[in-house]
Amino acid sequence: MERSRRTFLLWSGAAVLGGAAVVAGARLLDGGDEAAFGPAPRPLPTPDRVLPGGSVDFGAAGLGVAGISPLITPTAEFFRIDEAAGIPSVDTATWRLAVRGRVQQPFDLTYDDLLSLPQTSVPITLSCVSNRVGGSLVGTAVWQGVELATLLDRAGVDPAGTQIVGRSVDGFTAGFPIEAVRDGRPALVAVGMNGEPLPRQHGFPARLIVAGLFGYVSATKWLSTIELTGWDDYDGYWITRGWAKEAPVISSSRIDVPFDEARVPAGPITLAGVAWAPMAGVGAVEVRVDGGPWQRVTLGEDIGNSAWRQWRWDWDATPGTHTVSVRTIDRDGRVQDATRRPPLPAGATGLVEQTIIVR
Fold it and tell me: In which domain, by residue range, is 211 found?
C-alpha cells in the first residue's frame, strides 16, 4: 500500500473515534519526522527478558510479498491517535512516575529508576477502537519496558484496587481491570519501541502497553501516574463519552494486496495481508472468492500470540470482477465475527470484502 493511500486512511479513521465527524483536540499523524521530536537522552538498557518474537529482526521481510504490511511496523509509519492538543515535551530530570491509590506502599520512580529495573522486550499489535474493518489504524512494534506486575507487586495492591488508571502529563486518563496484569499477557510500562527509546509522539518518556486491550482504555502515553481504584470508582476519558469500559481487541484481518478495485491481469496473482487474534493468537487464516468455499492460506512467521501474522494465498485469477474476503481463526477455533457492526461502542466487526478486476 503506497504511503499516500495509507496517510489518507489514517486521517479518515479519526472521524470515527468519539462518534463525530471530527474529534476535538485529537491529533492523528502518520509517524512524523523523528529529528523534529528528538530521541530520549540515553540509550535503552539491554532487555533482561525477551519474550517470543522480542528479538525479531526489525528489518525482516517476512513473507516478502510486495506491498504487504511489514512484520514489524517501522516506527516512522506507526499510526498515532491521541487527545493531545500538542505533543508534550517531558524533561526526564524532573519527571516522576507515581504509583498511587489503593496500594499499601505508594512510591515514585525517576526515569533512571525505571531504566534500572528489569526490562522485558515483546512484540505487541496495537489496534485503535475506531479502526474500520480492514483499516490502517493497527500496527505491530517490539516494545521494551518494565512489567507492570513488577510495580504492582512493589506497591502491594489493596483488594479494593480492581482498576488500573493511567494518567498522562496532559490530563488524559484510561482505565482497565487489574486482571489484565495477572492473567499472563504482556503488560508493560514501556520505555522503548523497536529497539530505540520511545519517540515523543509515541509517549516519551514512558507509556502503558497492554496486549489485547484497545488503546483508549490502556495505552496511556506520557505517563505520569499509575493509580489503583475500584472498578466503579472512576471512568476514563473515553468512557464518559459513550465508549465501552471493557475493551478487548477484536480478532480481525486485512487484505493489503491487491488493493480494493485493483486491476490485474488474468493468471497467477498473490493475495496477502495480516491477521490478528490477541490473547489466543492466530491459528489459521482463510480466504474466499465470490462467496465460494473458504480456503486456508499460507501463514508467515509466528512471533507470539500478542502480535499479528502475515498471510498469503496464490490465486489463478480468471477474467471478470471478483469479490475476495478474508477471516481469522484463533488458536481456540473461534472464527472472526462476520456480523457488521460500527466501531462505537466497542470496536468494529465484520469481514473485509474487496473487489478485484481481472482483465
Answer: 24-34+47-84+94-241
